[in-house]
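Query structure, 406 tokens:
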């Protein structure tokens, strides 16, 4: 798991090293998971994250500095200690994560010349209003921390940290977070991706393809599978299947990727629009799961799996509002292809995030079973955060899947 997160960060261009965490290793690892989430959520310049000693002139338990436009973060081991006396931001149990969030958002201060000046104008305006309350009777209701008043950089870092981690953030912290989200959240990029995926499924691709090295991505995927040496039967089997899977280029393919059962190959079209924007690990895990299902598992003939589809569809309809909220802006699964595709299948295309096949597509039960199998298997193999829902609302499906593969 540790190596998994480190690898994920490495793939995003971030070197992580928490070996110096000592007695706080568990907390440091938890912080690393949050850094992984943060760097999925925001465009950042973070290139390294280290737990270790920083210069003792530091006024905080960590530091962020920039070299050649890339930000390096160091967090002291002791930053992960819970200390109620200095929990100024009211983070409670999440206090050990505070320094990581604080230093994370300092990448914005570090790369100031590259950041839209309008961003800093908006942050300064909030800070002015905030300081204007000082001395008034409601100051302690809205106060963020003493350190937040130091300068605009620390105001930003303290407010962001509080808005992200406290159950009762200052309204000014929330306003700061809104501004950070507006300028730095990857949302726009992801929405673009979803639109493309939706267009592709509707058979109307748009935009330009660009150079991608699918063979190399596949070789990387393969070597990661080999290295894992998992005791998990399904994972080991996927490694075997992956070794023997043929990946063929086909410039006529009407989709970026597809498993072709008749030929037993995975095809890709290097000129497909935005093919380079896909999460290749997800694509490969998904397509190879399809292949395994076709050749071995036969999910569409598995009574228990088919029953689980009915049960989970019923549960999704019964909790319609909650599920819809997953896909709203800022929702838990707004950016999840897997969950969106699963919900789309369960509701015959009626409910979905930004992506999903049409109602006609889902009218074939075998297609529905295979697509669900591939999504669940990919989320399982890659240990995606979506697994949480596979053990929650979708647990019958996951159980039936597990019985098939384990
Ligand atoms: Zn700071």
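Result returned for the query:
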């Amino acid at each position: 798991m540790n190596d998994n997160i480190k690898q994920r960060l490495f793939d995003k261009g971030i070197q992580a090293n928490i070996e110096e965490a000592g007695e706080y290793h568990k907390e440091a690892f938890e912080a690393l998971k949050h850094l992984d989430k943060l760097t999925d959520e925001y465009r950042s310049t973070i290139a390294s994250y280290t737990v270790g000693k920083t210069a003792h002139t530091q006024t905080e338990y960590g530091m962020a500095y920039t070299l050649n436009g890339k930000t390096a973060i160091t967090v002291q081991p002791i930053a992960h200690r819970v200390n109620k006396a200095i929990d100024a931001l009211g983070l409670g149990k999440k206090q050990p994560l505070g320094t990581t969030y604080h230093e994370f958002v300092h990448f914005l201060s570090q790369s100031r010349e590259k950041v839209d000046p309008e961003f800093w104008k908006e942050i300064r305006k909030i800070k002015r209003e905030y300081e204007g309350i000082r001395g008034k009777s409601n100051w302690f209701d809205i106060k963020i921390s003493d350190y937040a008043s130091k300068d605009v950089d620390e105001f930003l870092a303290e407010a962001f940290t509080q808005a992200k981690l406290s159950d009762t953030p200052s309204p000014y912290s929330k306003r700061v977070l809104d501004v950070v989200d507006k300028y730095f959240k990857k949302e726009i990029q992801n929405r673009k991706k979803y639109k493309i995926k939706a267009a592709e499924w509707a058979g109307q691709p748009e935009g330009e393809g660009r150079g991608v090295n699918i063979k190399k991505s596949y070789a990387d995927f393969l070597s990661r599978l080999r290295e894992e040496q998992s005791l998990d039967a399904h994972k080991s089997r996927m490694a075997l299947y992956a070794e023997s899977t043929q990946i063929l280029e086909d410039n006529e393919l009407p989709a970026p990727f597809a498993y072709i059962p008749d030929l037993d190959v995975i095809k890709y079209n290097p000129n497909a629009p935005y093919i380079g924007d896909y999460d290749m690990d997800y694509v490969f895990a998904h397509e190879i799961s399809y292949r395994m299902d076709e050749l071995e598992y036969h999910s569409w003939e598995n009574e228990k799996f088919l029953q689980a589809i009915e049960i989970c569809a019923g549960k999704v309809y019964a909790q319609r509002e909650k599920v819809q909220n997953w896909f709203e802006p800022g929702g838990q699964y707004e950016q999840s292809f897997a969950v969106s595709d699963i919900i789309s299948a369960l509701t015959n295309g009626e409910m979905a995030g930004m992506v999903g096949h049409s109602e006609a597509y889902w009218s074939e039960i075998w297609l529905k079973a295979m697509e669900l199998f591939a999504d669940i298997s990919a989320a399982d193999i890659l240990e995606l955060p979506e697994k949480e829902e596979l053990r929650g609302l979708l647990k019958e499906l996951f159980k039936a899947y597990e019985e098939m593969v384990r």
